[in-house]
Fold this protein.
Amino acid sequence: MISINNVGWFEAEKPVAGPFDAILRPVAVAPCSSDTHVSHGGAGPLENRILGHESIGEVVEVGSVVKNFKHGNRVIVNCCTPDWEAPLLQDGFDNNAHDYGFTASFKFVLGKDGVFAEYYHVNNADANLFSRPMTFPQRLRS
């Protein structure tokens, strides 16, 4: 999104992974009504913000502390990516209970660029990425 009511492509810097984070390349994305809501000004005056918050991605880089994922893994990324080390989450509150705001776990688009990009950033990779099953379980096959 270039500006409100002006959706289009623009160049952006490749994101950088912190020690707990991952950089992904999108494999499949799911446009949502939230993306259109944001593009029409429903989240405030955002400019040059990449939309999208639900995806399947391929890991291209992981931070030095990430243990469960590596380059080449295909993963599912939820729309909410909490900072799991936040004190309120550690005390058992839900993933939106951050010291810094109710929707703080909804980072894509509201707090940082989303997944409709060549590469995107996921914080706390070990807690916010989910391994994609390679095949369907027997009970789902017809």
